[in-house]
Amino acid sequence: MPSAKNIVSAGLLCALALLRPLPAEAYAPAVMIGLEGQGIAYSSEGGSPQSGAGLGLSGLLSWRGPWGEGGYVSASASTALDWLLADSAGAAGLYDRQLLLLEARLPSPLRLLHLTAGLEGSLAGTLEGDLPYIRPDWSLACLLGDDGKGRELELAARGYYRAESDGEDDSLYQGLRLDLSITPSIRARYGLLLEAGWELWPEIQRVDVGGVPTGEARNDLVGSLEASIGGLAGYFFDWSLAADLGGRWSNANRWLSALPALEEHSEDRVYAGLRGSADFSPHRQLSVQLDGFAHQELYLARDALDGTGTPTGEPLRAFAVGADLRADWSLGERLFFVLEASAGWRTANETAEERWNLQGGAGVQLRL
Amino acid sequence: MIHTAGVPGRSRPGTPVALLLAGLLGGLCCLWPGPLRADDLQGALDRGGFPAAERRQIEQLFDQAGQAGIPEGMLLPRLQEGVAKSASATALLAALERERSLLVQARELLQGTEGGEMQLSDPASWARTANLLNGGVPPEAVRLLVQAATPRPAEYRPASYLYVALLQWGLEAQPALALVREALRSTLPGRDFPALVDLLAEGRRRRVPLEQTLEQLARELPRARGLQDLRRRLY
């Protein structure tokens, strides 16, 4: 009787046989399943705190194989099912998140090109509050320069389309990203990332006086600049820190029925943020990852509203901070004991924009 | 709060904060033992302030080591370390004797190993070999490391640090040595060797079986044009 792993491997390889040429030296797929107990506490729009507990089931299938000289193909699929058994807000139920990713770096003489195609979605909505959605994404990157001394310049065109079955936040994004990385040594690496893009929101329309949709869809231009630094300290500790600035300029507007008045450029904003991460693996049995961020947004033309929906006269400002911790200890590299915790807090001068959440979980993962 | 900004039109006074900082720094300088000075044996013994009998014992040990072909400079750091830590003469003599013994053992090992003479001619590599033996690395493994470094003898010490780090990370001796060999056969500079441990840890985070990551490294190391290219080939 073939093992589950062999059956899955055979199925995946059959599917991947559509890719030509089939890598002759491909590795066996990695297959993981996991089960964990979860707890969650949260509050949104200034409401009273809520909490819940449940179980999470996860699966991961990944495969990678070399392709010609210097190229590779890889595929991965992951699923996360979260069953909230009890929730004080009555939100108990099943949630999910699915992810499929295909990636290829072309072999010589085209090894400068890197392609990715992904599909992310949720059938039942996510624990983080997303409605059911599907989001294909794509990217084509070209290595413009690599001097072989740690300096690389890459240009990528990337985009996505997010479609919600029950919501109105469908969006189409297409942008260009220029990525400069300088790695003089393993102890210090530097990066500069510049991105500009266009985002269309086909189901969100500009409104006229009275709040009547005009038929003109919302269009945004977005831009960002990020500088980063990082490196390897010793042999087992990798860290990075990034600072970014960005902005969004939009033709969106909104009707403030409390006044009443039309507010133009209601989504225009600038932001600045900091992001850090640390990975520590002093032994093959142990891995600890910590990520944190802080993010400040300032809306340029949108007023913060009070509880009655009346503008306060102050531009809307929001500050968010969060951290994520993942630790796992493995037994023989087949069984992993996993501990996860995350916290996020967003404060603003408008109650409807405030929220916080705490999530924690502990469980096991098994590599088949 | 002490305001340190000067008043326009007047010279800035030496503020209490500045004086306090200067005092603190001066105090720290007095307390700080300072770096191990590049002095000779007599200078180190003078700083140690040992009684005459113990001083003679230490000088005798150095004489014997010199007659056995061990340069004074190879034992001096251990003496200086002991002086800096205010170790007793007894403890210092024991440490120096152990160091001398390890250096002799390392020399014999290097003389009997292909590529060893080149490492023996470099005091830092000779001392590193003694350090490996002191750390519990079996002589046969050290021998294999020396042989593996024959194509790139200048990278012997980085390779040895990589080997020890791989063992510390939990890799068995044989695959650790195999990976070190692949690294030495590649064009990856020795200063980038620590990143190989990071790549193994990255594979673990991605739940890639360790054997697979090692296989991939063995295959891609000879082909990769630098560390970033190697990382792209793996992940």
Number of strands of chain A: 18
Low-confidence stretches of chain A: 7-24
Q: Which shape of chain B, going by the Cα principal axes?
A: elongated
Average predicted local confidence, pLDDT of chain A? 90
How far apart are the first and last residues' alpha carbons of chain A, in Å?
15 Å
Strand content of chain B: under 5%
Rg of chain A over CA atoms, rounded to whole Å, is 23 Å
Quick overview of this protein structure:
The complex is a heterodimer of chains A (368) and B (235). With 368 residues, chain A is mostly beta strands. Helices cover 4% and strands 71% of the residues of chain A.
Main traits of this protein?
heterodimer, A: 368 residues, mainly beta, 16-stranded antiparallel β-barrel, B: 235 residues, mainly alpha, 69% helix, 0% strand
Textual characterization of the structure:
Chain A is mainly beta and 368 residues long. Chain A has 1 helix and 18 strands. In chain A, the strands form 2 sheets. Chain A has a 16-stranded antiparallel barrel. In chain A, strand 12 (253-256) and strand 13 (261-264) form a beta hairpin. Residues 7-24 of chain A have low confidence and may be disordered. In chain B, 69% of the residues lie in helices and 0% in strands. Chain B is built from 13 helices and no strands. Chain B has helices at residues 16-31, 41-48, 52-67, 72-84, 89-111, 116-120, 123-134, 139-148, 156-169, 173-185, 194-205, 210-220, 227-234. With 235 residues, chain B is mostly helical. The chains are: A mainly beta (368), B mainly alpha (235). Chains A and B meet through strand 2, strand 8 and strand 14 of A and helix 9, helix 11, helix 12 and helix 13 of B.
